[in-house]
Amino acid sequence: MSDVGVTVKKNEDFSEWYTEVILKSGLADYAPIKGCMIIREDAIAMWERIQEVLNKKIKATGHRNVYFPMFIPEGFLKKEAEHFAGFTPEVAWVTQGGDTPLEEKLAVRPTSETIIYATFSKWIRSWRDLPLKINQWCNIVRWETKATKLFLRTREFLWQEGHTAHATKEEAEKEVMYALGEYRDIIENYLAIPVIVGVKSDSEKFAGADYTTALEAMMPDGKALQMGTSHNLGQHFAKVFDIKFIGEDEKDHMVWQTSWGLTTRTIGALVMIHGDDKGLVLPPKIAPVHVVIVPIPYKGADPAAIAAKAKEVADKLTQKGLSVILDDRGEYTPGWKFHQWELKGVPIRIEIGPRDLQQQQVVMVRRDTKEKSFVKETELLETAEKLLEDIQRNLFVKAKQNLEEKTTSVKTYDEFKQIVAGKGGFVKAAWCGGADCEAKIKEETGATIRVIPFEREEPKTDCLICGKKARDIAYFARSY
Amino acid sequence: MSDVGVTVKKNEDFSEWYTEVILKSGLADYAPIKGCMIIREDAIAMWERIQEVLNKKIKATGHRNVYFPMFIPEGFLKKEAEHFAGFTPEVAWVTQGGDTPLEEKLAVRPTSETIIYATFSKWIRSWRDLPLKINQWCNIVRWETKATKLFLRTREFLWQEGHTAHATKEEAEKEVMYALGEYRDIIENYLAIPVIVGVKSDSEKFAGADYTTALEAMMPDGKALQMGTSHNLGQHFAKVFDIKFIGEDEKDHMVWQTSWGLTTRTIGALVMIHGDDKGLVLPPKIAPVHVVIVPIPYKGADPAAIAAKAKEVADKLTQKGLSVILDDRGEYTPGWKFHQWELKGVPIRIEIGPRDLQQQQVVMVRRDTKEKSFVKETELLETAEKLLEDIQRNLFVKAKQNLEEKTTSVKTYDEFKQIVAGKGGFVKAAWCGGADCEAKIKEETGATIRVIPFEREEPKTDCLICGKKARDIAYFARSY
Description:
Two copies of one chain form a homodimer.
Chain A: H1 14-25, E1 28-30, E2 37-39, H2 41-60, E3 64-65, E4 71-73, H3 74-79, H4 81-87, E5 92-97, E6 100-108, H5 113-123, E7 132-141, E8 156-166, H6 169-190, E9 196-199, E10 211-218, E11 224-234, H7 236-241, E12 244-246, E13 252-254, E14 256-263, H8 265-274, E15 291-295, H9 303-319, E16 324-326, H10 334-343, E17 348-352, H11 354-358, E18 361-366, E19 372-376, H12 380-405, E20 407-409, H13 413-421, E21 426-431, H14 435-445, E22 448-453, E23 472-477
Parallel strand pairs in A: 3-7, 15-16, 15-17, 20-21
Antiparallel strand pairs in A: 1-2, 4-6, 5-6, 7-8, 8-14, 9-10, 9-22, 10-11, 11-14, 12-13, 17-18, 18-19, 21-23, 22-23
Helix pairs in contact in A: 2-6
């Protein structure tokens, strides 16, 4: 833990502020190896919480966790041409085991479709084996050459990847939407981050997919961040890995497949969206600690009585299922502790001093608004729980406002360019559906289609670029 | 799932039996890449259970989970000479990122002391930062050249590694024993596997440790299996990575360190020890499924009434916190289901047929003894819970008997050789403490010192080899 607070203001140098908040709050650290990061205690605690929530959901719907090897022979990656072309530029290769050069170099998994589906072809024989719905939590490596950005762009990160095989196309389509729905619930209701959900354009889809659906969030600097993806793989991989089953009709059929992933970058989004000039602000439903209690032993007061009361309050809250830290360290001042726990984003701080003792009350400070209130001991539990709910809701509402303020509908390409170069954010524009128009926009403005939302709006103008009839209203943005 | 049962008998070809049970029960599969395995659904469920239990323990004692990069620059590994020499022969090396050769090759972590301690030297400044107690759950790679053995010898496996730094030697010593104690609880009380705990000889200790403590179990074929280790690292790594702190005395001190690990090989031990000719036998405290219910719809019976009763029983048990599968699949016969769930080691099978319905009872079959009993519906919950406790206890008792039967005290080297070549198991023998005598035994018999137990026995004879005064009674064995 650092002794000083955040020195950069969020609205002055967003990028610097982001890095400083992460390092000083102890969420992560740069690793002593280029391009990599150390995911520290509080970030792992949040990731474990995400794991717990998602595991519960997907297990209840018949998915099971497994673990596949992280090494993928080059030949496997090559089997699906589009997939290989998409991933090979950023693969880390193992070429040597002990002193011996390997006969075939091995990719450290950039994603696991190929090795998993090579095995699906062995596991799946009959309609009785379907649907096959598995998931794994693991590390992933993509050899980034651009500058490292903690949580958002590192050579190794953590994720889960779901992989399913189904007897029918319809079932696979349903699964794609199922996974996306569970992601949305976690991101909006736990991380308190509103998202736009929809389909990626062909040029932005997963290499090897029929189509990719995604959840996109808007950061305070006007750049979009992809929060998760769910792919309909159609029968691309089934064909190259020969994943067939004998149907109830006793004939051979190809399976239909999906894959979907959620990564530790979601934690980066959390920092960007909710954090402030004092540090992290964590949504209660994901925070490792809900309440920190700081005893205030004024000179001349009875420190033992204050300590006893602080302990009593801590026990009460813990028994209610809250995660509580009683910070009774003698080597730090209350003021230092306030700063420290603000930096770490703990939703509620409780202070207990001699006067509070007398009046049978505590001081309660909420992290998001810094609002301070005196709470009678008899109302402690109720107030704390209500406050946590309020904070959770308030963070989402504020983020939703940010998303709305940063979403602009445009009619002309001039307007489009002006917005992208200026306030940024999502720019909603009519698009013909052509890859050329999309490429031109990307080249000239840096903005890409983030999604074509499921909540479809009928285009009222023609394509921004070519002037032909528009097919969709797409959400464009520059992105992380 | 396979359609046929185990074809090899445990006491006829132990090694074949082991592999067949694992593959057919669906615990694991060979990966389509040499030396690697796929850890399948039920094995991951058991590993998750181990994670849950150990996480709860270590978090309650102030340890926190983190995640460090898996790539370790060669230079880091080299810093501690003994450590490098110990691990480098089995390191997988990444030498290329995308198309570009790396300037320094990177080890895929065989263990993480070096990269973690390079960072400890940055995190630790003052006595206030101590103790630092972290842990990570991750994959590990050791480039085995010997034949693959599922769970026991694969190039990649899963583990947790705890890493701690302390202000005093005493505190580090206590931590070593703390971790060992938690492992023992999990292995004996959850996995139902009795262990011998003690210290490794110098030649068998962790490369870079002051000393290594370990838990050793005895397999039915007379070979020992190391179940977990906890190392006292002394100040070896502190010195090479310069991990210093300013004490309360305002002077510079070196930290004292420990590391400890438990791997997925424990699941292999579970299979070996408890399994039988019908397949897996899982201890209830670790089993992913406690009870399977198979409705028996005899011809002429009322299938709807049986199905309703089966559902009712399943709900009752689930509400009690048990993990229950109601196998009401129409496409399989009851007999096929019995075999299948026996293969998978589910502790209790409940059968419900028309006569049971009439008599308001169920048939309950325990997996370990195959004992069958009729249980009144009113006594269902109580009996099931009692049975699970009985099975858990019985498995431990049987394994303990195996351990005792396979432990032999010897006085002479001739006796020693005879036992090792014959029935195998642990051979307790007097040893002078010299590496030469130990090496001679290993060379001539293949047996190594597994541990010198903490429960010390005074040697009553002289060293088996050199005839000098014995220092210890050591447990020797051939091992996995």
